[in-house]
Amino acid sequence: MSAPLLEMRNIETYYGPIMAIRGVSLTVNEGEIVAVLGANGAGKTTLLKTATGALDSNKGQVLLDGEEIQCRDPDWVARKGIAHVPEGREVFPFLTVAENLAMGAYNRRDNDAVAADTETVYGYFPALRELRGKMAAYLSGGQQQMLAIGRGFMSRPRLLMLDEPSLGLSPLLIQEIFAIIARLNREQGMTILLVEQNANVALQVSNRGYVMEVGGMVMDGKSADLLESEDIKEFYLGKKEEGIRGRRRWKKRKTWR
Amino acid sequence: MSTDNVLIDGCDTLPKLFLKVAAERGDRIAMREKDFGIWQSYSWNDYRERAMEIAYGLLSLGLQRGDVVSIQSEDCREWLWADVGSLLAGGVVNGIYPTYQARQVEHTLSDSSCRFLFAEDEEQLDKYLEIEKELPGIERVFVFDWTGLRGFEHDKVDSIESLFEMGKSYRADHEGLVERISEEGSGDDRAALVYTSGTTGLPKGSILSQRYIMCQMSFSPDYLRLSKDDEILTYLPLCHIAERVFSGWLPIAQGATINFSESPETVAQNLRELSPTYVLAVPRVWEKFYSRVTTAMSEATWVGRKAYETGIKIGMRRADKMIAGEKLSALDKLKFVIADKVVFSNIKKMLGLNRAHSAASGAAPISPALLKWFLAIGLAIDELWGQTELGIITTTRKGVFRIGTVGPAMPGTEVRIDDNGEIVARSVGQFDGYLNQPEKTAETIVNGWIHTGDVGELDEEGNLSITDRLKDIIITAGGKNITPSVMENELKFSPYVSDAVIIGDKRKYLTCLIMIDQENVEHYAQTHSVPFTDYRSLCAQPEVIGLVDAEISRVNAGFSSVEQVKRFRLIDVLLTAEDEELTPTMKLKRSFVCEKYSDLIDSMYAGKASS
Q1: Are the beta carbons of A22 and B537 separated by less than 8 Å?
Q2: pTM
Q3: Angle between the B518-527 and B283-298 helix axes, to the nearest 10 degrees?
Q4: pLDDT tens digits for range B390-427
Q5: Chain B residues with CB-CB distance to A under 8 A?
Q6: Phi, psi at A4, each rounded to 5°
Q7: Cα–Cα distance for residue pair B277/B172, rounded to 1 Å
Q8: Is the dihedral of CA B297, B302, B307, B312 positive or negative?
């Protein structure tokens, strides 16, 4: 097997004195969708930020195509081919939709291809085409999320990292966005690292998944297997076996196996 | 052996003694437990009143002398209230491990013909509800913690508070009844049932009498050195005989204060914050302390490491002299005082052992090297030996350091070695047989002597040393007798090995299943940049396997070729107390493990072994 596209080895990242990630390793192979699940504060966002260089790790390596990229400037990492779609969209509010997309291609000089890719984005997100002249601030949450993903795509990255694309969206819209994520992967061959709280949709579209808890990895495996795991069912999918009294409040001990 | 009663303060049963001492001790603190993170104290008066209310409550429900009451809970104040309360009413108390699954709970409840059940909370109650239909004999269930059960209604189930109320009103009309019942009691009365996890077959219930309890109590404070000013931390399951003796019975005899740990996960923190004056622990805990120190030292500054190494050298030399029984020179003493001030006191503070005047290890064999290390830092750990059937009957004596032995028998008990090497023993307070199992009882008690199933030796001073469990002794295909526990203990001394099971009965060579110490191995992987995700992948890393291999080679070096482990495998599932592979005290169950991992074991015998 060829070297993974992204490999993180024993990453430790601190916020001041607090160790937010305690020794996390993860791999993403070319062409895969990999999901990282975990509750709030588990360290998922920190993991992505460490990969892009927005945060510097204190220990461990990040390898993109076998090349060490940890602790480099974020713009350098972006040029290397990692696009980060941050949590909460973070579109440029005072720029139009078209300008936002153009910002995604800031590093590119192949104008024809950029124009073609803009069309591709509009193809995936037809709503954006109609809104291309509007200021991004006026878009709805769902439209902004589409724009953020589109902007990420515009840099034609090797790896697209999505931080909670389902945040604050209606269930229907979540289905729609994830369907598009799956299509981007299938049709464009886009490798995607997906961080999500919504375990169900994330495991539906991804090939493999990791589960993080208090800064460490507790489980990993094929998404289909994770969906079958008792602990995932109980703690992430909210499926409790009915207790003898109809409902039970107490939780089983997590074993992650 | 004589059936004379064992008397303490003129009392021959726990209820008589309890009523007497609780009245004398009054407002002195008997126990502490955290409530929403804040320590709350309960005096002997509180202890007595709650126990009385429970006793009267159970009497009002028709409890007769000898009826069985079960307690299914983690350690908590209500556990002991219900324990003593049931005894005061003439009941027999059966503790059920809260980690038991419903199926195991059902066996002990039906085998013991239990009438009343105390369940800790919603979770434990659910286990009963699951098997309710099979247990028509259970008349009432009382729940300690009603959280999450609001609105729940069931004919048989009530909160402990409602039992207190029942008890209060019954007591008003029958003042003096409990005292009368306790007066009628005798040392022969059944007091407790203790089920021991059968590694083969279902658990057997040992019948313990009041005399058994009084006998255990009589060993303090001279042999089990717990006295009235001591503070202890209660964290091993109270269903286990060791914790019941130390947290349940000895404090009644001596008046020590017990402190409940918040949960099994917080034992280390609770120890640090309390710093008990007497520490009882199982070898696994002592091993953990040691590995925490070694890990901390490997990361310490150069100066810190040097100070530690120098200190340990001084401590070890002192320990050697103490073991040899030589007198310590003034210089030795001075050196130790300095080493203690500079190094050891900090280590002990870090572990919560700085106030401990005594410590004890029991329930499993412990590595002599570990005991010596603790002696070196100035903490002499007594080794205790016994079993449910006998109680604790041997202990090492104060100021005598026979490391590797569990000391001589205590007064009222006798130990000798049978022809086949098995240790047989008797005690004035030994058990009265297994419930409903006359054949098993007859196998165990022969002519009044209890066959312990342990193999061991007695030295000329009467110190007992334990070799192994008789049935665990391995006879290899080459006919060589091997006692696995010696090597297993050496392996467990390694900070990276949590538990080990050596295999090789009727096999060509020895192999080993290893359970790694998650915390320390993860730490190792982290500092050596070994990538892993979960526990399974950690166990699969070549570096981790190499690490364990090095530990095995180190231990192998001390043994002859036939006694060496040729191959090993790691158990790559993170086991918890709920898993049947582990005993409630977190030891691997040999026979269970051998069966469950038979494929893994067979793989070690496939092909040719490299030696």
Answers
A1: no
A2: 0.84
A3: 20
A4: 999 999 999 899 998 999 999 999 999 999 899 999 99
A5: 121-123, 126, 129-130, 147-148, 152, 522, 525-526, 529-537, 573-574, 576, 578
A6: -65, 155
A7: 40
A8: positive
